[in-house]
Amino acid sequence: MACSSSSNAKMSNPNVSTPAMAVTPDAVDQKTSPVVFEIYGKIWNVQARLGQGVSASVYRVNSGRASSAVKEFQVDAQGGDYGYLKESSVLEKIQGHKNIVTLYGMFTNHNPFGVATHCLLLELLDVSVSELLVRVSNQGHSMWLIQHCARDVLEALSFLHREGYVHADLKPRNILWSADDECFKLIDFGLSFKDGHQDVKYIQTDGYRAPEAELQNSLAKAGLESDSGCTTAVDLWSLGIVLLEMFSGIKLKETVKSQEWKDNSSAIVDHIFSSNALVYPAIPVFHLRDLIKSMLHNDPKLRSTAESALNNPFFSIPFAPHIEDLVLLPTPVLRLLNVIDDNHLYNEDDYEDIIEDMKEECQKYGTVVSLLIPKENPGKGQVFVEYANAGDSKEAQRLLTGRTFDGKFVVTTFYPLSAYKRGYLYQTVQ
Question: Domains, the chain, ranges and CATH?
Fold first, then answer.
């Protein structure tokens, strides 16, 4: 890719390819996993196993340029399909919200051994909050990312609770980023139930389990009945722990199981925030701490609701994403850094040649909708490439990262499509 009509600079591959922040799903075991699914008369190839639980496995599947997720349920011990019927029925009733995973359809898969399994065809999402926590271990996420995740999950819970449902298994692994919609979405409704009609004894995951759910589980194990079922308040407790982990960068499973936490969780939250006080601005820290503490009352009746939590002043503060956020969260817009020198921006012929060369190169990886190279700050000399979808931008990021241009290594990040469309280019990203 020529820098200009008079330049000999080319973009070349490094000796060793090192794509940044690549997610590596489980390899598909051909002996135990399907190779293809036939869905509505069309063959979908299994590309990777994204996760495996006690009752179901999730696969990334592809048919042509379309990619989706398939959740395949195992037949339970009694030969029934309770898990499949439970999750599909809940998902069908809560469709249409931007922060809840989209259900495309349901089908039965007949494998070569004559076993029929029930499956859900779902929207394919990207990185989970669990993976994000691993990548920034012990340092915590930016306020922009915490606010983005908190708002998206609260919007989903507010909708879910208005519809009369409790998610009952909120945790980092069940909050996933949608690269095309640029938001976080909730998945996995296998333990969900109608508020006031709890039909699942053991709910929530260890480390994110509300005190009343912990008590109920203990009674159930002892063969005793609880006086009352759990409510939507259990979801707010789980979210409070998730946000505390995102702020601290520390997994809190052992902390929330400790006697010190049971005796005075508020003091532990204060200690976590005081330990990180120098890293974050004081006012946002105060509001975030207040928001989290409102979700972590031992008495579920005192906990904030999802709707009231959205009114916390924390959500009125504008934040810009850090560069780590733009590397971690894919979008349809790719940003190339360390590519264009200032002297190429002010010669009109050179500039037009650069635009055309960049388009030609970037179109090798997907459909380019638009391309922008600002001549002035903010964004001076950076290349913004809008692809038709996030799949194309991720492929471009994978193949362009680490290549050299005019003797310089190309650096790539993603960029918020919403900001790009508004012409808002962040002046500085820490």
Answer: 11-20+330-421 (3.30.70.330), 36-122 (3.30.200.20), 129-321 (1.10.510.10)
